[in-house]
Structure formats: C-alpha cells, structure tokens
Design brief:
The complex is a heterodimer of chains A (116) and B (113). With 116 residues, chain A is mainly β. Chain A is built from no helices and twelve strands. In chain A, strands 2, 5, 6, 10, 11 and 12 form a six-stranded mixed β-sheet that branches. A four-stranded antiparallel β-sheet of chain A has the order 3-9-8-7, with no helix packed on it. A two-stranded antiparallel ribbon of chain A has the order 1-4. In chain B, strands 2, 4, 5, 6, 9, 10 and 11 form a seven-stranded mixed β-sheet that branches. Chain B is mostly beta strands. The model of chain B has no long low-confidence stretch (mean pLDDT 92). Classes of the chains: A mainly beta (116), B mainly beta (113).
Chain lengths: 116, 113
C-alpha cells in the first residue's frame, strides 16, 4: 500500500526567502509519480509540480522545484522567493503507474504562512 | 482550466436523506474520481471511473455509490446521509490512468445535520 507522510503541520517563512516543505513516501511499485498541490483558503486544489520515479533530473516549475531523493523516498517541495500569495496548504500526493486508474494517495498537508 | 464543474457547490441536508453530487467535465477525459477532504487532512478516494459504466471503489467507499452513464458526468450518491459524511467533496479527472496529473473541480461543501 502507498503512504505519504508530511511531518510539518505548519511552516512559517519570511517574504522573499526560500522554504522547503517535506514529503516522504512509501511504495513497493517501481513506477510512480509524485505531485504537489496548493490549496489556498478559497479551497480549490491547484496542481504545482510533478516528478516521475524514473526522471533523472529534479522537476522545476517557475519558483517551485522538487528535491527528489529516490533512495531516501523523499520528494520535498522548494519554493523560492516566497510571496504573500504562497500562504496556503500544500499537499504531497503519489500515483502509481501499475493500476488501471492511477489512484492518488495524499498526505495530510502542510500549512505555509508567509510573513511580510 | 480542465473544464470541471461540480454541482451543487454547497448543500445542507438532514440525516437519512439521499444526496446526489454531480461532476461534469467538458473535455471527454476517460478517468474521473471522487475524493473527500475532512478538516486538517488530505484527500481520500471514494470511487473512481475508468470509462462509461466502469467504476470501482476507493479506500472510503462505504455509504457511497456512483454512476457514469455518459463520459462527461460522474455522479456521487449518498444513499442515506449521515453526519460523518459532512465533508468537502472533490471531483477530479485525468487524461490517462497512469502517471499523468489529476486536475480537480472546485469542490462541494456538504453538511449533514
């Protein structure tokens, strides 16, 4: 069974600084994808970034990068140059490649607060 | 924008009444999912569909049923709502069933009194 662990219930960061949100995962499948979503206070789930288990390089999307350490089973999200609008809850999720429908497993989330 | 709408967006109902939530997509994606989100937690899969009339259970399917008679619509039914089903319900789609991204609808906030 898949499991996602986010150990930081809440994080604070000063505006314009970088922050790392932790995510560890557990799976027996060799092929999987890792995702990060942002959920602002308005409630919608916004896709941020994706990393495949066979990708050789860490994924980047603008100010977001994913620090993927396969041997340690970690997929930490790095947000550079934090902005006030980054204040939200962030979820790490995993999908495996081997099931018929690629169901996702989510962590419990980390609430990020950006201070001015 | 993945073209996903959910209706209703908010609903208050009483224990024991049936409730149906609708997810509608405009881009003919094969895979659709229903998740629930409870305070302080991530999303948990209720049911999913991999085609018209093809559905299967997720990890928290008890008390829920689904139907998909058309590609664009995926219905979630609470046969007899209970207070434990008070939650925010998200519909999601994916283009393929494997490593591709899931995109989510705006959510439905359901309160069962």
């Amino acid at each position: 069974a898949q499991k996602i662990t986010q150990t930081q219930p809440g994080m604070f960061v000063q505006e314009k600084e970088a922050v790392t949100l932790d995510c560890t995962y557990d799976t027996s499948d060799p092929s999987y994808g890792l995702f990060w979503y942002k959920q602002p206070s308005s409630g919608e789930m916004i896709f941020l970034i994706y990393q495949g288990s066979y990708d050789q390089q860490n994924a980047t999307e603008g100010r977001y990068s994913l620090n993927f350490q396969k041997a340690r089973k970690s997929a930490n999200l790095v947000i550079s140059a934090s902005q006030l609008g980054d204040s939200a809850m962030y979820f790490c999720a995993m999908r495996d490649f081997n099931t018929n429908a690629g169901k996702s497993t989510f962590g419990d989330g980390t609430t990020l607060t950006v201070k001015p | 924008d993945a073209g996903i709408t959910q209706s209703p967006r908010h609903k208050v109902t009483e224990t024991g009444t049936p409730v149906t939530l609708r997810c509608h997509q405009t881009e003919n994606h094969r895979y659709m999912y229903w998740y629930r989100q409870d305070p302080g937690h991530g999303l948990r899969l209720i049911h999913y569909s991999y085609g018209v009339k093809d559905t299967d259970k997720g990890e928290v399917s008890d008390g829920y049923s689904v139907s998909r008679s058309k590609t664009e619509d995926f219905l979630l039914t609470l046969e007899s709502a209970t207070s434990s089903q008070t939650s925010v319900y998200f519909c999601a789609i994916s283009i393929a069933g494997g490593p591709d991204t899931q995109y989510f609808g705006p959510g439905t906030r359901l309160t069962v009194l």
